[in-house]
Amino acid sequence: MKRTLLLAAAMGVLLAGCGAQAQTPQPSSPGAQAVETQTASAAPDLFTTGEGGDAAWWQAHSQDARTEDERTAAGFVLAVLNRDIGAVAERAAGIDAYFEPAKPELKSRLAPLDISSPQVREAIFASAAADDAGTTYAFKLVGGTSADSFQGIEGALQFHVNGAAHLVDDLPEPVFDSKP
Q1: Which of 53, 135, 148, 169 could form a disulfide with 152 if both were Cys (CB 3.0 to 4.6 A apart)?
Q2: Who wins on pLDDT, 180 or 57?
Q3: Residue 131's CB: how many other CB atoms inside 10 A?
Q4: CA 143, 145, 148, 149 torsion: positive or negative?
């Protein structure tokens, strides 16, 4: 009898605990919605100087982008890291979705990033500068060849995202230097 009561009490506690975990609180008023929004916006900023990494890092953190311009920048960087560029073969590629249609010549400037060696392995956020037309994003690129364990070059990638269209409208040619 004692075992049965003890077992019933334990099951009751277990079931009550699982039920509480499974329930998702629903906002019951507009005030509750605002609190949830504030909590969600307290997530770490994707574009913090020194933050970044390889394609897996950008894929995992791209949902942290807060604005359309940031989503464009994160997607653009991810396409570069995945070499989904198509500049050398002049083919359609994933990066095309981030360019303004009126500026197809910008894609050809990425040809140095669209080759198998050296290959860009990481993109680290360096800075963002807003202007009346949008935001210029700058990244440090790290990569290399299989002979140097993909750590033999450093470079810079900078591009401007038009604030109205949320697409890349300016792109200086990327710069690379051998690491000492």
Answers
A1: 148
A2: 57
A3: 9
A4: positive
pLDDT at residue 50 tops 90: yes
Yes or no: say if 156 and 137 are a contact pair by the CB < 8 Å rule. Answer: no
CA distance 166 to 97: 11
Torsion angle in degrees (nearest 10) through CA of 139, 47, 143, 111: -50
Contact 120, 141 (CB under 8 A): yes
Give the angle 165-167-173 at the CA atoms, nearest 5°: 145
How far apart CA 70 and CA 36 sit, in angstroms, is: 22
161 or 6, higher pLDDT: 161
* Domains of the chain and any CATH numbers: 52-178 (3.10.450)
Q: What is the mean pLDDT of residues 56-83?
A: 92
**In contact, 129 and 49? CB cutoff 8 Å:** no
Q: Where are the alpha helices (DSSP H) in the chain?
A: 2-22, 30-41, 55-61, 68-81
Nearest Cα to 115, choosing from 157, 146, 85? 85
Run of H or E including 122:
strand 119-131
